[in-house]
Fold each of these.
Amino acid sequence: MFQKILIANRGEIALRVLRAAKELGIQTVAVHSTADADAMHVRLADESVCIGPPPSRDSYLNIHQIVAACEITGADAVHPGYGFLSENAKFADILAAHNITFIGPSGDHIRIMGDKIEAKRTAKRLGIPVVPGSEGAVSDEKEAKRVAAEIGYPVIIKASAGGGGRGMKVALTEADLEIALQTARTEAGAAFGDDAVYIEKYLQKPRHIEVQIFGDGAGKGVHLGERDCSLQRRHQKVWEEANSPALNAEERSRIGEICANAVANLGYSGAGTIEFLYENGEFYFIEMNTRLQVEHTITEAITGIDLVHEQIRVASGGGLSVTQDDIRFHGHAIECRINAEDPRTFVPSPGTITHFHTPGGLGIRVDSGVYSGYKIPPYYDSLIGKLIVHGRNRVECMMRLRRALDEFVVDGIKTTLPLFRELVGNPDIANGDYDIHWLEKHLAKGE
Ligand code: ADP
């Protein structure tokens, strides 16, 4: 087992990892920018190292500083959290070259899944259902038209190097295709320095359903059920639930088994998420994330398994603590992402939190790195906390969530709490009746 883990992240996820390491008796090292000297993850870690000025590229994305911090403190492993360097294959390779364990998959697996065309090809080869579309990149308009005619309109043009919803364009008919192709290519080139694009069928009212998987790196793979993350704004998840209100037990185990077998065959190591769009009873792979996700907490709630413990175990060579047969699903869980943003316009609202009071009681978990008097720096993302609620069934979970939202107090800044108070009372949400466009439509109506 590791002696000391350096946590290459900040905010609630740095605390999340720190807690798991402490439970396992492992020393922790926090890294921080000058803007985060007072942050909770710095206060609670056994040691801390300042790695640079506020902009992420000079601190949390600065590989050399982080490797130097490992060497100074003698850390033998790095947990990257999510975001920042968590899906940076070069970082994983550099750590390996310094004999420091990256708590995550191999650089090669990160690389495959970071290239959407390669990821889709790999998924298909592993028996995962994919969205019908071009075999690889499309080179010109003629080829694009041929593929689109074959799969039928509407189609979506996507950047191979894509991420964060950029470089995607929909063409409703052949008349839109030329412009869509050109714009997607230009955007992709500008954003990612790679203008390769591919085409797939555009699904009109899908849900976003993702499967949590784990590989032990030695040919074993398990799944921990799915999460429904259909409530999104600009491709950013807002509210997540496990299990999905849309799936039955047969669909759950069918897609779960496909994913578990795929990661086993890939020889994948650690946590990962296979993301699908789901429409009319069919799953369509869109991407795989090779890291822990923000919403891993709801999977923990319904399985009782600490995913960060598992990540650390697997990375240290100890294997998974569970087999597929040990994994059972209990009740229902919902996560609300509480952002320091205006709940209507979503404009970030940094500043000082004058009063912070979190709800408690049975089935309530709050993961947050903030406290009363904390000043939110303007340099990073606006997530200030996650409210995770568990109940024996969805109805109980929603009742508890409504009560917890009433108790939650964040003064001094604007937050998205009022949005969740509206959502929890909405009949469509109560019925689990929503797709990936529901939230934006609801917000546009100003309901
Ligand atoms: P990114 O990595 O940029 O987030 P994804 O491939 O994960 O890109 O897609 C992001 C979002 O774009 C999806 O959650 C979905 O809302 C939409 N999307 C992607 N592919 C399709 C498709 N074939 N049909 C409909 N919507 C799509």
Amino acid sequence: MAKAWHLTSRPQGLPTRDNFALREVPDGPLDKDQMRVRNLWLSVDPYMRGRMNEAKSYAANFQIDQPMTGGAIGEVIESAMEGFAPGDLILHMGGWRDGGIIGLDMMPNKLPTEALAAGLTPQTFLHNMGLTGGTAWIGLLRIAAAKPGDTVFVSAAAGAVGSAVVQIAKAREMTVIGSAGGAEKCAWVRDLGADAVIDYKAEPVLSGLAQALRDLGKSGVDVYFDNVGGEHLDAAFAVANDFARFAICGMIDVYNDTKPQEMKYLVRAIPARIRMEGFIYTDQFIDCMEEFHADMGGLIASSAVTMRETVHDGLESAPDAFLGLFSGGNIGKMLVRL
Ligand code: NDP
């Protein structure tokens, strides 16, 4: 019998393990358009925090006492769905569980066998070739329209999205300033090619950013890729060049807040004519999927884009992996291996 993590209560502020329970899910013979799957990798992502609230987030909210869902890589065990056979590796949305019955509502897609044969690991489709790499690529190149020569500031630069942003920007000859929490993460962001790195846990973001710009001989930032919100976003407003573009990807600093945060420098949006645009990966992805896969596949093949993974083992560890995102417990992509 398969087991799945259920949301048992809606978190107030930072979630705890008490908000979740591991329970068996119904099993039985397959209906048409269903498969039985054994999951191999589960993704935990910050956007799932919004799905735990009562109020609607951009993805449908989780229901109390129902299994949670999310990105996963699984192996097909038995199939009554056309086009899928036992042994196929699939990307689907039936995460937070060790397997079970998957229908079309879980959006199963076969992993491309040629990419796997070329050496890509299956879980790459949960990060650089999937949600987080796609979010980085779309946000930087489509939403912010970043171009060679731009000075790009990216927060949570040692995370899954942020590390991809750093590397895509460097591959396109941009100057990159990253911010991350702690010396180990900052050293990795530098290794990825960032021209300057701010340890926001050791100094205020604005003074770090101003110093980095002085050291690099730059007047300000042309592009801000926001993964964090709060103090980072405010500092970006303070140092934005005229006609800067802000791609608003995520605001992990405020996801668990119960009160709004103060923005001191937002008013600079007017004289600096800043364009700020929030975006959601799923809105944009279909339109640019082919171009993204070709470009990102090439960057990975040439090692211009690499990845680190922080791996928790076993279904039991999924809530800890998820909660770790909010305390900086990951370098690169946070994953659960089953
Ligand atoms: P990450 O791998 O970046 O993990 C989260 C990281 O955020 C942590 O490692 C931590 O790094 C940092 N962090 C946590 N709390 C804070 C805080 N209070 N202040 C500053 N940094 C903090 O996650 P993802 O790459 O998956 O996601 C990055 C962002 O992108 C998130 O905001 C997410 O919601 C968003 N996103 C948006 C999508 C969209 O379609 N718009 C799609 C996918 C992701 P550190 O130790 O450096 O603090």
Amino acid sequence: MRNADRRTVIAGLGAGLALAAGNACAAPRGRKIGYAIVGLGSYAELIMSKFAECEQSRLVALVSGTPDKLKRFGEKYGIPESHRYSYQTFDRIRDNPDIDVVYVILPNSMHAEYTVRAAQAGKHVMCEKPMAVSAAECRTMIEACRKAGRKLMIGYRSRFEPYNRLAIDLAKKGFVGPTQIITADHGFNARPNQWRLDRALSGGGSLMDIGIYSLNAVRYLTGEEPVEVSAVESTDRNDPRFRTVEDRISFLMRFPSGIETTCVSSYSSNHNMYRVTGTEGWIQLEPATSYEGQKMWIRRDGRTEERQVPAGKGQHAGQLDHLAECIRNDTKPLVGGEEGLADMRLIEAIYRSAREGRRISLT
Ligand code: NAD
């Protein structure tokens, strides 16, 4: 545990959730926390289906620019017309007391605007990853929610996934000895003609979208913040998918305790794994951060064994109910705006390192 002792554990792990000041955000008791979903794309469709597993959260309103979607999902989930909004009528959510939280599931460049507007309408916010397209936008979002006295949480669902939680716990305890190295690879083969490949909407390529899972994982597995980053980008600019965004970017980070992490982010190869290597063995998850189907192997004492974790509440319902609990109890979300900002600051440093071809010090 010698290295672990020196680590700053990411705020909120386990029972140590810090209490937020005041009680201005408490929602009415006796009913579930009401969510409005903004942006009815593919991930929103999955999220809408997950309210059925929630104990403390319910879907109460929809926001979309497409009337057909409002009708289709409105009818499917029993959302009355009075609770269906367009982007133009969005600000009227202020007058709807059934809505406690706005869940922003729009293209990345729209996260900041809708978070700020939701906070100004007096609502708490759940915002998808990446939190925004720049650290400056993240700061604006945090400030808007602080000023409005509302919670802000980022959709880092893996923190509510049992295998990832166990991996964090085992790494923290030094189960395979103090962590020395972490490798984390995330990527998929991006289909052409989508907003993710348009920098104006995505803010960047694979790193913003999928590499952020590698980045966030090494932060939650070490419980530390990196002190140095170096990155190399590899993009075929003749591939029409990559006119404005990067394909592959590999980055190496050094942490205060001496841990080194090597991460791959890619839009042209398919992987989803991480391995935490300690002095006595390793812990591997593959897939690590998918919606389901996580598998874990542990190598220790010269033997490799698969470890199974009882299926608990799903990560999506866990994430939705966590914010509901934070609102109910006026506590700080495990993955608040500061967590999204920390990743975005690193994303900016990774891009800078790749662009300038040098190591970037973060101290
Ligand atoms: P998507 O393309 O399926 O949906 C985007 C939605 O935004 C669509 O309903 C679209 O109509 C709407 N939209 C509004 N204005 C738009 C514009 N100008 N251009 C394009 N679309 C516009 O995308 P998605 O996969 O649902 O991703 C949405 C967000 O959710 C992204 O921030 C993404 O990173 C995040 N996401 C998170 C996870 C996760 O596991 N946490 C998974 C997938 C996506």
